[in-house]
Amino acid sequence: MRIAVLIPCHNEAPTVQKVVADFRQALPEADVWVFDNASADATAHLAAQAGAHVRHVLAKGKGNAVRAMFRDVDADIYVMVDGDDTYPASAVRSLIEDVAEGRADMVVGTRLESHENASFRRFHGVGNRLVRGCISALFGHPVRDVLSGYRVFSRRFVKSMPVLSRGFEIETEMTVFALANGFVLSERTIDYGTRPDGSESKLHTYRDGIRVLKTILFLFKDMRPLLFFGTLAVLCVLLSLGFGAIVIHEFARTGLVTHPSTAVLAVAFALVGVVSMATGLILDTVNRRSNEIQRLITDQVLAQRRPSA
Fold it and tell me: Where are the beta strands (DSSP E) in the chain?
C-alpha cells in the first residue's frame, strides 16, 4: 500500500523540519508532503530541506490546504497531521492499523485523555466538549475528539469527500461527513504535547469556535434535511395548536373572536410547519439521489485505480 503523510502548514518554520524528519523516520516507506498555506516565513524552504514534497496553496485557510491535499495526492492510505510538533510521530503505525486492515475509513488521534496542562489554551477544552456533544446528539454517534488534527483516512474516504470548509472547521466537517455517509470512524488515544517556544497557534478561540458551530448546524441541515426541517415543522405545529387553542376556547365560550391577530398567528405557524415538512421531504429525496450518484462516481474512480495498483 502507498502511504502519504500530509502536513498542512502556515508559518511553521520553527517546527516543520522536525515534524518531517520524525515522520520520515517513523514511516520510512511513506511519501511526506507539506502543503504550505501562504506562509510568510521559511516554512516551504525548510520542509524541502528536510526531504518533503512541497506544494504551495495560495488561498489562506486550513480547509483550502486540505482540499488541495485530497485533490493532488494519490495514495492508498493518507495520514494528516499538523506541522506544529504537538502530535507524536511514534503513534502513526497504531493509527494506520485500522485503515490498513479495512476496519475503519477514518481514524482520529484523540487528545483529551492524554495531554499536558499547557496543551490547550483557555476555553479550548470546553469548546471541544461542546462541539462533540452537539455532534453526538445530532448524529447519534459518540465522538471523543472532534477537532484533532491527527487523522488517518482510507482512499475511499478521501476521494469521496467534497471539502467545503475554508478554515479550522475542516476537522468538524470531516467528522460529520463520515458519520452522515456511513463511513466507519474509530478513535485512538495519543499523547498530545505542547508547542515549542517560538511557535504560535493560528486558532482564534471565539471566531473559529463560532465558525465550527455554524458548520455543524449547516452540515446537519444539508445532510439530515428531513430531521432538520421535520423538527422545525413539529415546533411550528405545536405553536399553531397552542395559539389556536386560545382562539377556539374563546369562541366556544363567547361565540366571538376578539383576538384576530392570535388566529392569524396560529394559521401562519401551521402554514410554516406544512411548508417546512414539505421542504424536508423534497430535500431528503434530492440528498439521497445525490449521495447515490456521488458513491457511484467514487466507486468508478477506485475501480479504475485497482488494475494499476
Answer: 3-9, 31-37, 53-57, 77-80, 106-110, 151-154, 185-189
